[in-house]
Design a protein that fits this description.
The chain is an alpha+beta fold. Helix content is about 20%, strand content about 50%. The mean pLDDT is about 95.
Length: about 90
């Protein structure tokens, strides 16, 4: 499965601060329908992600009925991304 989407970079100040982009609800629902076949536990969904010219392997985080795409520091630096900025992303499950 492959999904293209846009969203804003958000900063989560949990025990380990991190940056994410939230997937649109319709795509999250589609992913949720196959999640039991692809999750490795805790609802995490492994994906290959691409933002701009940067690709990396990561896992979608389940959050409030949807999913968050983590943006690692090297992705934000390579793509010059700031909190609140719009991002176009591609994920492949």
């Amino acid at each position: 499965m492959q999904f293209e989407f846009s969203g804003q970079v958000i900063h989560w100040r949990g025990p380990s601060p991190f940056h994410f982009v939230r997937l649109p609800d319709d795509q999250a629902e589609e992913i949720r329908s196959v999640s039991s076949a692809v999750t490795y536990g805790w609802g995490m969904i492994p994906v290959q992600a691409t933002v701009g010219a940067t690709s990396w392997k990561t896992s979608l985080f389940p959050k409030d009925g949807g999913y968050l795409l983590p943006l690692r520091d090297f992705v934000r630096v390579n793509e010059d991304l700031e909190v609140g900025e719009a991002v176009d992303a591609l994920i492949e499950i």
